[in-house]
Fold these 3 entries.
Entry 1:
Amino acid sequence: MNEALIFMGPPGAGKGTQAIRLCKERNLTQLSTGDILRDHVKRGTTLGIEAKKKMDAGELVSDDVIIGMVRDVLESKGSHDIRILFDGFPRTTAQAKALDQLLNEYHAPLDAVILLEADEEEIVQRLLKRAIQEGRSDDNEDTIRNRMRVYRNQTSPLIEYYHDSGKLHRIQGIGSIDDVFSRIQAALSR
Ligand code: AMP
């Protein structure tokens, strides 16, 4: 059966970690636009070279590029296997509308949007720690602050967009990985 979930939240709220776990439990494929972009960067593709400039500055990659990437993934899966957790997508209203349309084409309604919330200062500290552990070039303090700003300005309007559709679950993202995961499970079973 089709299932489509969205993970939303500011950078560093723990989306990736929780997404991996939820995918395992619900047999979903994680579609992280950030991971796809990082793979392009690593392979040195034209898309990757262009995207890296934006990523290093903490800016968003253009909607056309991102929507095209998501469309390609869905096309490669075929129409009978839409069990996807979207992680870090959509990030703009244009992306959200494109996703609505894509899911419509695949007859896969959106089941739920999980919003992981966390205090900004706590997140900045988390991200700085991750920078050291993973060596991500977009995890220096200036970039992190800019990513927060971009989230506030361009992505947070989606909270209202999904709230209005009645599919939004607000989850407190602070706490142990297990605690946060339990909250997500509880929200999805309601
Ligand atoms: P993430 O790993 O999801 O935090 O993404 C890392 C970076 O990739 C972001 O700061 C953006 O530059 C870019 N990116 C990832 N997903 C998107 C998206 N849906 N729209 C625009 N840019 C994105």
Entry 2:
Amino acid sequence: MNARTVLRAISVETTLEAEDAVAEMLGRLLGCPASAFFDVEARISRVCVYQTGPVVPGLRAKVKEGLDRIRDCGLDISPARISIAGVRKEDWAESWKRHFKPIEIGTELLVKPGWSKRKPRKDQVVVILDPGLSFGTGQHPTTAYCLKEIARYSGARSAGTPPPGLPKNGHSLLDLGTGSGILAISAAKLGYTPVRALDFDAEAVRAAKANARGNGVKIRIVRGDATRLPARPGRRFNFICANLISGLLVSERKRIRAQMERGGILVVAGILKQEFSEVSRAYQNLGLKLVRTKSEREWKSGTFCSQ
Ligand code: SAH
């Protein structure tokens, strides 16, 4: 392990019978709770603790001592294989690259990583993205739904008719929880203006700003918390996307709603299928009308308009 290691996984392979005792021992020794995973086919339980900071001196010997004590109590702990492995920061930051394939949203938008040679179709807007450690490459169904809706309502390019209440060109857009900036940047490229984005994670704000620069779009990206949006905002938006989690969408419904311009659109995502009805009810109770939903895998996303 080298100095760039930020996370260490300490795990023990054992029996289902000894799993609880091993988890308790590892948890006490390392000062953080252990998780356990039972592989039904191999009939082996893997008990694991993730740890940051300096290595505990003699860690392996201490784990072994703990295992010996459990064995002495009469539990079968075999195979009792100990593994200590570093998870390097580079691995996290680079691993997304394997999964990031270009994604097309209709004929309007192509989002791709910098190294992709994929050529856009005629009139297709291209967004080049490096999400780093932040969420959002377009592969996730919730992101893809938001992108589709942004493309659908982009007055300038949309093949469909712009919905009533939205200006024909250049709607303003607010992206709550921007991550890599994928939605805000795509929106700016599709003609939305002005575009604002917010994330409470400093790393996301950094990545989103770098991506905005890389794509040559001017959008305002700030570090901020969606639970602290102003109840009486200075500016309201024609289009809001909130790819957050359902708990937050429900608890912050009034604040989120307050950012909407009359006749505006709100896209909510990040919602598990079974939680959608609660989110939907929360916004309908605030006078919004549900105009579209889409389910994909375990997710369900929706689009509302204000009347
Ligand atoms: N908009 C991107 C990323 C969605 S992931 C996409 O659609 O792909 C959700 C993002 O919301 C994460 O980047 C997370 O840091 C951010 N987030 C979660 N809770 C937040 C809060 N309370 N305030 C601001 N940002 C938040």
Entry 3:
Amino acid sequence: MANQFKLPELGENVSSGTVSKVFISVGDSIEPDQPVIELESDKAVLEVPSSIGGTVSEIHVKEGQKVNVGDAVFSVKDGAKAKDEPKKAEAPAEEKPEPKPEADAEPDAPAKKPAAEDAESDGKEAEAPATRRAPKERPAARQAESRPAPAPPVPARRRTPGAPVAASPSVRRLAREIGVDIYEVATSDPSGRVTEEDVKAYARGLNTDVEGMAPRPAVPEIELPDFTRWGEVEYEELSAVRRRTAENMAAAWASIPHVTQFDKADITDIEAFRKKYGKLVEQAGGKLTVTAILVRVIAAALKKFPQFNATIDTASGEIIYKRYYHVGVAVDTERGLIVPVIRNADQKSLTEIAVELSEIAEKARARKTSLEDMQGGTFTISNLGGIGGTAFTPIVYAPQVAILGVSRAQIEPVYIDGTFVPRTMAPLALSYDHRAIDGADGARFLRWVAAALEQPLLQLLDA
Ligand code: CAO
């Protein structure tokens, strides 16, 4: 039975620190995962949770004392978890499931829950201490600039038990008072500390999602086996962008009945146009690309087909038609997918759009896109053609109702007036929310977009 808690590994670069607070006293009954000391290192201030439970018999550290990884912090005399130990012994190590996500911990006040309440997870904790997966430092700088939005209430993925969170007691208190689980909050502070602003931003996200929609439906989580049973594995903390993408995609996939409509656009003349006028746009500071042209064409298509520039609100039984045309463009960056928005694309010239697209893509790749830059989009374009591929089925970026995917344009033989002629054909894929849009409308919309690319003057007939 473990009766002494030693300072565990705290992260790749933290091997010691100064005890700034001791949260426990002799005689306290404590539980695994309960914060016991606050430790200040040169990198961050961390609360260190215990991996053992029991009644504290001795505290080996005091405030202001320097401690190293492996130093004894406190001892317990009765080991409240002793009763669970036979259970652990029965289970062969490799068949033990992952420790359960923690229960709602009250990080900055010693919790007084009865030990039996957590008997199951406590038992596992005692044998699989906090250091089983070395708690990693949060990649703070990456999270800081990439936080697209506060995390929504689903899925309720909790931190790995034992991974400490750096935050001051007042921030923890605030989180507790407003009902935020501090372990779910991403930090925006380069030091890795969770700040008051982080907690407030997270709390705002709990009430509504990014676009002000109702809270999303819960997405069931897939239970993971212990992969170490079959070989070596490596753990990497999800970046804020990856986490957010995962949540958005899962929510959209679970709640939107998708249909994907395919077509091809003959962009031979557009390619000739790009070659001819690319220099002019370059002088203005942009790049006349297929994506830039598509943004302009899509803005016109959204005016022609308002149901594609809408949101379906099943709760109120309404369709919300937006009278602005803000086109999001998926940008592939080192840290994942970012979707900045080109506002009022219907009112901008092609050159203006090309310049803005170059700017937002550069900004996204330089990690400078703000939350504001990504909000308010009414339709999204995802062009993977620069990378390759013949087709893909994009996922609608909720609460929008449609997204256009573009694959690599290639020269193909096209049968025209009795002869095969080489034409540059761009594969298009339109995914849409079948609750809001019928199949025939999907086909019409995409054909209209293809025709507008083939004969741009056609648009003017309706304009
Ligand atoms: N077919 C053939 N070639 C294409 C093409 C297409 N559909 N789209 C772009 N290209 C070419 C461009 O012409 C350019 O070639 P040159 O350098 O010879 O002129 C090259 O590919 C690179 O294009 P680009 O990336 O500079 O410019 P872009 O405006 O076409 O694309 C952007 C901008 C931001 C959309 C793109 O860089 C990008 O990030 N795409 C990935 C989007 C993504 O990840 N989507 C997935 C989201 S869903 O999981």
